[in-house]
Amino acid sequence: MENKADIGLIGLAVMGENLVLNMERNGFTAAVYNRTTEKVDRFLAGRGKGKKFIGCHSLQELVGSLKTPRRIMMMVKAGKAVDELIAQLEPLLSPGDCLIDGGNSFYGDTIRRTNELKSRGLLFVGTGVSGGEEGALKGPSIMPGGAPEAWPLVKPVFQAIAAKVAGGLPCCEWVGNDGAGHYVKMVHNGIEYGDMQMICEAYWLLHKVLGLDAAKLHEVFAEWNRGELNSYLIEITSDIFTKVDPETGRPVVDIVLDTAGQKGTGKWTSQSALDLGCAAPTVAEAVFARCLSAIKEERVAAAPVLPAAAEKFNGDPAEFIDAVRQALYASKICSYAQGFQLLRLAAKEYNWDLHYGDIALLWRGGCIIRATFLEKIKAAFDRQPALANLLLDDFFKGEIARCLPAWRKVVAQAVMSGVPAPAFSSALAYYDGYRSASLPANLLQSQRDYFGAHTYERVDQPRGKFFHTVWTESGGDTVSGTYNA
Which is the catalytic residue, given 17, 24, 173, 185? Predict the structure, then answer.
């Protein structure tokens, strides 16, 4: 009998190629296809040579080479390309076959695709895959969701190739129905935006306020990586500062143009937070910081004509370095608190049974935000599964209290020195807002009632009871309906 492949993979770009090599290394035979079929031949003659792969030059050939029920993983660009590929594959498949979208697809599309394919007898999985090129090859974090019936089909492959932590536990577990997997990956990426921006702000403060060069910055970040900030992003940041450009002799980081790109998942996270009424300012500020970096020419033109702060730093440099470390750690706690609140609201909105401690564990290894810190989040949700906000956990309360004086000093110094620190500042403002029993929204609601008769609740009356004041002589008694847009 002709040998059949355990799984098919479409899309031999960086992630697809490394994932399929990971699958083969873990004992699976994979059939591979790429729209540009020359890539299949190059792969089989190169990194795939002598390994358990079946090269295919058409979708028909791919489908025919698979064991049933068929499992096909699509690693193509999110959006229209996924729908077009599904339309091509669907007539070739049989009921019970499983399609897997491993790209960064929008969770709303995954909800739609899961339901559409279910009506046609096919199973669909939308899975987040994080870890970049190295993670895909050596063990990524995998966040699958979709049709629950598909989990037994994909579980053996996904848990075999996933990163492993503490006792060989795979960083892969079923997240939830329809779009849950891609939603969790989206929030992961939003948190990643925040982490990266906060690290950049720490670097920029140490560079602009203290004048630290790349060599000294390497030492600082290497030291930080030995403590509570231990993480992949801190580790690679430390490493980045050691790289020297052979042509100029300058640190590479100093010759990289300060304009940041983005692929949209941070924006989606912020948009979802707005849709669900969730305060997630740190992720949003990280997105805005990238947008501001992109208008390089405008910033260059503005620099000589807009006044800058003139106050010099007169404190102890070692103390300031440690204060920045504490500010980074406290801001990180607040950013993750926002991310997990967003997950909680999304679970309620989309009827997903999310397990927040397990999600933290999924991110403990393989992915870009992997960090020792995530074990503390797992422990917090183990102690209190219904925890409303990480800031209310005893451990995190203590950590914030310890770092708070330094955090405030760093944000104040950034303001006085004219060094932008939007993520540090927004995280602190979020903390101060969340801990405040009273906020100035009473005036805001008065303003809304004044100009639009939007009504308000009263401090001396039960919640849910609304009132209107006739603020001017021309005002009437007719009020506007109450709703959230």
Answer: 185
Q: Show the tokens assigned to 306.
A: 């807009």
- Indicate which residue of 17, 192, 201, 285 is catalytic: 192
C-beta atoms surrounding 146 within 10 Å: 32
| Amino acid present at 149 | E
> How many other CB atoms are found less than 10 A from the CB of residue 60?
14
Active-site residue, 149 included? no
59 close to 143: Cβ distance less than 8 angstroms:
no
Let me know: does 315 contact 321? Beta carbons within 8 Å.
no
Q: Indicate if 311 belongs to the active site.
A: no
Confidence of residue 265 (pLDDT cuts 50, 70, 90): confident
Among 223-232, 309-318, 388-397, the minimum mean pLDDT is found in: 309-318
Residue 482 is classified by DSSP as P
Mind giving me the DSSP string for 165-204? ETTTEESB---EETTHHHHHHHHHHHHHHHHHHHHHHHHH
Q: How far apart are CA 360 and CA 364, in angstroms?
A: 6
Give one DSSP letter per residue of 103-116, joined into a string.
Answer: S---HHHHHHHHHH
74/109 Cα distance (integer angstroms) = 14
**Range from 170-174, 250-254, 354-358, 361-365 carrying the lowest mean pLDDT:** 361-365
Query: What number of residues does the chain have?
Result: 485
Tell whether the model's pLDDT for residue 482 goes beyond 60: no
The values of phi and psi at residue 10, to 5°, are -115, 125
Query: Residue 264: its pLDDT value, please?
Result: 78
Whole-angstrom distance, CA of residue 146 vs CA of residue 54 = 27
Q: Give the per-residue pLDDT at 481.
A: 64
- Do 332 and 228 form a contact (C-beta atoms < 8 A)? no
Query: Does the pLDDT value for residue 483 go beyond 60?
Result: no
